[in-house]
Amino acid sequence: xxxxxxxxxxxxxxxxxxxxxxxxxxxxxxxxxxxxxxxxxxxxxxxxxxxxxxxxxxxxxxxxxxxxxxxxxxxxxxxxxxxxxxxxxxxxxxxxxxxxxxxxxxxxxxxxxxxxxxxxxxxxxxxxxxxxxxxxxxxxxxxxxxxxxxxxxxxxxxxxxxxxxxxxxxxxxxxxxxxxxxxxxxxxxxxxxxxxxxxxxxxxxxxxxxxxxxxxxxxxxxxxxxxxxxxxxxxxxxxxxxxxxxxxxxxxxxxxxxxxxxxxxxxxxxxxxxxxxxxxxxxxxxxxxxxxxxxxxxxxxxxxxxxxxxxxxxxxxxxxxxxxxxxxxxxxxxxxxxxxxxxxxxxxxx
Length: 350
Prior knowledge:
By secondary structure, the chain is of the alpha/beta class. 35% of the residues lie in helices and 13% in strands. It has helices at residues 4-9, 28-42, 48-66, 79-89, 104-111, 154-164, 253-267, 271-288, 308-315, 337-348, and strands spanning 73-76, 95-99, 119-123, 138-142, 167-171, 188-192, 204-208, 298-302, 321-323, 326-330.
């Protein structure tokens, strides 16, 4: 295993960048790999076998990161596309339980099936486990809430869902990369990897328990979902992969070339070390502005309608996001104590 220092050193410092929850920064190896791939493409020497190797290596690295076998992992482009696989697989009249204010990509794919009787109930995050009932078919939620960094009670949700027979479908986009994630705790997980995992946008992952493969419809089935990829480029006969690859979305090649080094960097470092470091920075910031520890790498503060706090932070060299009527700061491995001190000084001296 590599060390946290090795991971941190892989990124070029960008002082004041506290916005991993919106878009991660690329490691130098990712930028170099994409520059090389562009040059190769421009020279007419693009090799599709190299792209396939990048997808396979990314799949393997992500599997290590979330603690499952690569056969559980499908590749995709965006979280909403992968949630759409689950939504399209539900029977007419199914009931879906979600969280008030959860990210649209978690909720909208299910709402889009209202015409066939799929109903979506929303409850506060803290009430999610208690709101699961015998009629609930799916519990769809983010492990970490995008708007404010609150972490779901996975143990409680999983226990009640299992007792009631509901599928758990968890978005780990705002968790994987700073919070240790065990995808085996859920029936299905989805992750867009351009945030905390610092991969290019256009790379995403789906994990599916093997015993549930036949319950999901491969809505994006194409040649890349075939058991033998390069023997599946023409119809009409179809032989899809026997594992989660049957849900693969044909990859945006250059994105996956850039994803490999990022995912391998994060997969090589003890997850607890990254967790301690990022949450330590966030809690140091919280202490500096008079808040108790939060246990999350994401901190949200209230802001006015004009976004005055966010504007002030930006003027003093701190990039943060405006979300849900507040300002959201996200602390990742490229950040350090100086970033905390700058943000605290800006907000406490204003």
